[in-house]
Write a structure and sequence with these properties.
six-stranded antiparallel β-sheet; 9% helix; 2 domains; 354 residues; seven-stranded antiparallel β-sheet; mainly beta
């Protein structure tokens, strides 16, 4: 039996830094409370954990991930204005009240703040995951538990029930780069490797920031390398309508068993999958077909179709140990993420001119 795809299969690829949802942990969640880590000797922490805490602890200002997109319009007189309805330039902020080394696992306190007061912070919907045979939605505001695993930093995001783990990331490298002098003379990777690069564009020959402004004292950014812990299945709508909750739209087909589902034409992947193009396994507590060949994405992931309640659903799996990566427009994906400290964010805010 050939499965007919009568609707556009929604691409459920994970977009890192974007949703960071899964890498930057958007929106506010409960803090750990109590005293800070000043009572914890640095000798108790690995070098990576010391670097992490030098940014993420609330007493140090927290860590800030820049995100945004800018759109402009030009009048008949040549005047350029930012489109405030569609433009965003903000930070995703996260902090810990105290060190996990001092008091055990802690909950991140996170939120979003606009860098330009004229621009609104976008709203967030929860990413969907397949966990133990059911679809769950990440908590919004996010709930993320931080613990130390050997010399590394482990972050586990929870579903809306506040208990179910949806995705765990292991941070293995935290490299701090101090910033000084003119912002325009910063390391190129700061602009090419983060959304901070949007402000370096010019509109009709006009710069979007004051290139004479210098970084404030103590400004720095941190390069973070992370990988996924455990096979993680991200779920998306396979056909219309588009949804945002746990009731995702299944693939439009009369097949209820994977063997009868193929061949299947995926519009989002621009590819027809045959049964022999993958393997049927038990994944996240359910029977699933997993493609043999990875998708074209910065972070390695594989197309998944799984059975649930007599229907077939679509998703992708990011396998255990997969490094997170970003697409920056070059042939080689970037294997790290950039976070700013508070002094760096304030420097950027004082420099923008749009």
């Amino acid at each position: 039996m050939k499965a007919q795809n009568r609707g556009p299969e929604i691409n459920s690829r994970v977009t890192w830094a974007v949703t960071l949802a899964m890498t930057t942990w958007l929106c506010a969640c409960g803090g750990g409370g109590g005293s800070d880590s000043s009572t914890t000797p640095a000798a108790n922490l690995s070098a990576e954990q010391q670097s992490y805490e030098s940014f993420v602890l609330a007493k140090n200002g927290g860590q800030h991930y820049v995100d945004g997109t800018l759109g402009f319009s030009t009048s008949s007189t040549g005047a350029t204005t930012v489109n405030t309805a569609t433009s965003h330039f903000f930070t995703e902020n996260s902090s810990l009240a105290q060190s996990p080394a001092a008091a055990g696992p802690q909950m991140l306190t996170t939120g979003k703040s606009t860098i330009d007061p004229a621009l609104a912070v976008p709203t967030q919907t929860g990413q969907r995951y397949l966990v133990s045979g059911r679809v769950v939605v990440e908590a919004v505001p996010a709930q993320v538990r931080v613990s130390y695993n050997g010399s590394n930093v482990e972050e586990t995001e929870l579903a809306s029930d506040g208990q179910t783990a949806t995705m765990t990331l292991l941070g293995t490298s935290y490299t701090i780069v101090p910033l000084s002098g003119a912002i325009s003379n910063s390391p190129p990777e700061l602009f090419s490797g983060s959304a901070l690069g949007v402000m370096t564009n010019t509109i009709n020959g006009i710069s979007l920031y004051n290139q004479q402004v210098s970084w404030q004292a103590g400004a720095a950014y941190m390069k973070v390398v992370r990988q996924v812990v455990g096979d993680t299945v991200v779920v998306g709508d396979c056909a219309t309508p588009n949804t945002t909750g746990s009731n995702v739209t299944p693939c439009a087909t009369t097949a209820s068993q994977l063997e009868a589902f193929f061949p299947h034409a995926s519009i989002s992947d621009n590819k027809t999958y045959n049964l022999s193009d993958g393997q049927i396994v038990t994944l996240a507590g359910t029977r699933a077909w997993v493609a043999n060949v990875a998708q074209s994405a910065a972070t390695t992931q594989y197309r998944v179709y799984f059975q649930n309640n007599g229907q077939i659903f679509s998703g992708v799996v990011i396998k255990d140990g997969t490094p997170l990566a970003l697409s920056t427009g070059t042939a080689t994906p970037q294997n790290f993420y950039i976070f700013l400290n508070n002094a760096a964010v304030q420097s950027v805010a004082s420099a923008i001119t749009f």
